[in-house]
Write a structure and sequence with these properties.
The chain is an alpha+beta fold and 327 residues long. The chain has two domains: 63 residues, no CATH class; 252 residues, no CATH class. The protein has ten helices and ten strands. Strands 4-1-2-3-5 form a five-stranded antiparallel sheet, with helices on one face. It has a five-stranded mixed sheet with strand order 6-7-8-9-10, with helices on both faces. Helix 9 packs antiparallel against helix 10. The longest helix has 18 residues. It starts with a strand and ends with a helix.
Length: 327
């Protein structure tokens, strides 16, 4: 029997519990080492201990994945096979390339910048194993931001981001090694006071949570708890914090100094993610909210398409690849 990985139920320090679905739409679960299976992968019960899935896990998955994932997958496979004419399937999976460079938007004027970017990520060990997947948020991030950096157009993100004021840009950036949050994209001024930290989502079903083990409880006591008292407008206990772990970890960086902005960027069809951010914002202090931004990639892309030259051509293709999905 083969199963499709559809959801990450829990993610621990070493292992993750995943939700699986068979061809009859029945749900199961499995515990595996982190990184050994990703959403969209297929697996079998030959060498895995497949278990029945808790109804609570299934309900949570169906509630949090209220976006057109099936249409998105169909669209990406069509783009790969019919637009790129690529029928080679990495790991035997239709939406996976055999080479990470194939997941870059090529032939639109930014090939050198894009390939140089993944070469650098590969050299420093931050190029993710699933970069070859068309659903990869890291590939989405690289394809979205690299031309903006090259053309000094980061100001298209919003009035809080001016290129001349932010000479430092980085992908997969860890601002505080002791705390360990890794931002998908990060820019800062010369003195490091004014910053923009970006969390990007494309195909992930949710923002990450965390288990309340000893390691996480210790970090909450030493790091997150004191910061939460500066950020949250209502009491937020540690267990509720772990339920929205990734969101809060990002948002807390909007509290360190004035001028430190945190952005959540995703396609407009991911209104489920927007709803989650909006919910957390209701729990934030008013003085923090102006430094937290939700950016629909579609809005930025439409403005870029209107520009003349290679930016317009490039983002027309970006839209065709990532955003032209019927809900």
């Amino acid at each position: 029997m083969e199963y499709n990985v559809v959801y990450v139920i829990q993610s621990g320090p070493k292992n993750s519990r995943l939700l699986l679905q068979d061809s009859n739409q029945n749900y199961y679960s499995v515990k595996v080492p982190n990184g050994s299976l990703n959403i969209g992968d297929m697996c079998s019960n030959d060498d895995l201990c497949i278990e029945d899935a808790s109804p609570n896990w299934v309900s949570r998955y169906e509630r949090q994945t209220a976006y057109p994932r099936k249409k998105m997958m169909e669209h990406l496979i069509h783009y790969k096979q019919c637009i790129l004419h690529d029928n080679e399937n990495g790991n035997g999976i239709k939406h996976v390339f055999t080479d990470p460079r194939k997941n870059l938007i090529g032939g639109k004027g930014f090939d050198d910048e894009l390939t140089g970017c993944i070469r650098k990520l590969n050299a420093n060990g931050t190029l993710r194993n699933d970069f070859t997947h068309m659903t990869s948020s890291q590939a989405f991030t690289i394809n979205f931001f690299t031309p903006l950096i090259a053309e000094k157009k980061l100001s298209m993100l919003g009035p809080f981001c001016h290129d001349a004021e932010f000479p430092f840009c980085a992908y997969e950036y860890v601002k505080d090694p002791a705390e360990e949050t890794q931002f998908d994209f990060y820019v800062s001024g010369q003195n490091g006071i004014r910053t923009v930290s970006v969390e990007v989502k494309y195909s992930e079903d949710r923002f990450g949570d965390a288990i309340d083990d000893d390691n996480h409880l210790e970090k909450y006591s030493k790091i997150y708890g004191p910061l939460m008292s500066q950020t949250a407008s209502v009491p937020e206990n540690q267990y509720e914090f772990f339920e929205n772990y990734q969101l809060w970890r990002n948002i807390l960086y909007a509290t360190k100094n004035p001028g430190q902005h945190v952005c959540f960027l995703f396609p407009a069809f991911r209104k489920d993610l927007k709803g989650r951010v909006d919910y957390i914002l209701t729990k934030c202090k008013e003085e923090i909210k102006p430094f937290i931004h939700v950016i629909y990639a579609d809005c930025v892309v439409e403005e870029l398409i209107a520009l003349e030259g290679r930016l317009g051509d490039y983002y027309t293709e970006f839209k065709r690849k990532y955003l032209d999905i019927e809900g």
